């Protein structure tokens, strides 16, 4: 299997700890919520499942961790130039929020199919939004054009050491709060959260297994992980999934290097499994997940045979920025199916 680990420096535990101190006044140390899912965890199973509620961050997503770490290290001259990023929504809000904290202008290049709730939240934080087509390559191209014109400082969504170190603080919190955790599940798309979390967890507790979870309709990271070579999927494939935060077409190079070193496996889940997991999270943990944040729970509920044995697992609920209409549809669809079946 090929590897890019030798050419890219990996984030260290010292960097992760320094990052945690740096961003402590902006992010929230999110709780681990015990979720006794029937038949999977709880009394009589010998297993416990905890949800890492990143949906409780000020912007409703883990993305604030990496964006804050990057932006808080800008020079005064870079702050004056302003920042730019390309995002489907959650990273956009993270950049807008952190930029507002330091007084920098924020420009966000967003896909035309980004959820309205995420676009509205980004605008409410004072950012300027530029719309492009649905492909992540289109967002990157437009960002490059605006950087050349205006001199903005780019804050990448995932392929950056400071972004990875920021997301790694999620893993640092997990191990500090649950020292005997033996399985951690993270969503994966561009790879920021998975690469950071896996790095922190493995450096602190090497015996803990770390798995990435990805929609089967956008499984480019799975293909890359299994082949050992970065793979890109076309936008017409990745945009099929309901998980709008997991539609990135390829892992970042730096993220891939960390994932190759520290991640034990990647599992795919179906759209129906994600929807069922959202209902289970709301019913059991009383928190609201967006589809992208529910993939880890879907893996625990429906793919136990693909996971290693565990006693204490943590599933990261990466965000909670879900369109209210979609949430209502998902929460009530079982009732609709039952009503039709009874006729």
From TrEMBL:
Its cofactor is pyridoxal 5'-phosphate. One of its GO terms (molecular function) is pyridoxal phosphate binding. It comes from the Bacteria. InterPro entries: Ser/Thr_Dehydratase, TrpB-like_PALP, TrpB-like_PALP_sf. Keywords: Lyase, Pyridoxal phosphate. Gene3D superfamilies: 3.40.50.1100. Residues 27-319 form the Tryptophan synthase beta chain-like PALP domain. It holds the Pfam family PALP. GO terms for biological process: isoleucine biosynthetic process; L-serine catabolic process; L-threonine catabolic process. Belongs to the serine/threonine dehydratase family. PANTHER family: L-THREONINE DEHYDRATASE CATABOLIC TDCB, THREONINE DEHYDRATASE, MITOCHONDRIAL-RELATED. This is Threonine/serine dehydratase.
